[in-house]
Amino acid sequence: MQEVLGSAFLMGLFLSFSSVVGIAVDMFLPQIIKGITVHNLLTLGIVSGGLFALLLLYSTWIPAAFVFLIAMAVWGIYYEFFGFAEQQFVADATPLRMHSAVWAILGIFKNLAYFLGPLMAGYLVLGGERMPVVGAMIFSTCGFITLVASKGVHKRPVKIDTEEVSLRKEIGHWRTLFGRIWPVLTLSMLMGLVDATYWTTGTVLTAKLAQKNILGSLFLPAYMLPTLFVGIVIAKKKIYAGKKKMAELAFLASSIILLTLVFSNSVVVMVVIVFASSTFLSASYPLVDGVYSDIVARMGRERRHLIGLTRSSLSFAYIIGPALAGGLASLTGEINTFVIVGFVGAVVSAILLVTTPKKLKLPQEDIHKWD
Q: What residues form the membrane-spanning segments (predicted)?
């Protein structure tokens, strides 16, 4: 893509476009999916994923900028379909006390895919640039066959009323919800910013550290590795109460550990610091998702608006995250970028620990007035 667009900056803008589309989907999808089932959402997600793969395959013959732009838009839609499906499934099909455990298990398999995917793509690309895309299409087909064979639970008729779509109305719903759940939204957006920093500035820093010491190539893998086993611990604990505070404490610990990069000149120590920081960060994810699922379960038929709001906070993080990380890296360097991110994370999470109420109360009277 960078060869076609001519610069890394333009490539970054194209990649961020998927998150822009994601926010648009988060705004409009809640108004047109009344009654839609998890099965239907997964089907739409798999179809979108297959279309994304087809566009990438097409780009190998005609590597035009507009093809990449359309592909990124489709990816943004695909990602949101699966996000809505996950929240709907956990809220509907699992007991309240198991929400964090279920998210932990889902996270293990999702992160395992992220870990194995690049390895498989690296092997497949030896057979030609189109082979990774063909492999993705095969996986999409297998996923669709599995979905059809599984006969999803909680079947309900799909009701879609496009006459009620209103951007102003949806923003009003989000404003109402934000006033009550802003602590957990703030935390999840910060987590998204940290993740975006690793996948942008972190990749550059990994390459630079690898030139100094072969173990420097483990900088980014050290960030990914804890996601494969921390979820097992969270699932075994079956955490029900105090998820918000535990998530904030874990993120605070992660941020403070990341701050210590400022004191280290050793590549090995940096890798260890990232591993330790990521271990606590990986604990925050299922806890935050568990909080969301608890609230979604309490929202009843209007849950789709909450799911849209929570998904948009992540999309926003992935829009501004790469730009912020890139700007900080240009001004202060890659290592100091992580130090600054750690400092901001520590300050904000400390404030959240003090200000977050014990229970996030929903504005039920306002919600009952929504159509």
A: 6-29, 41-58, 64-81, 102-125, 131-149, 177-194, 214-234, 309-329, 335-354
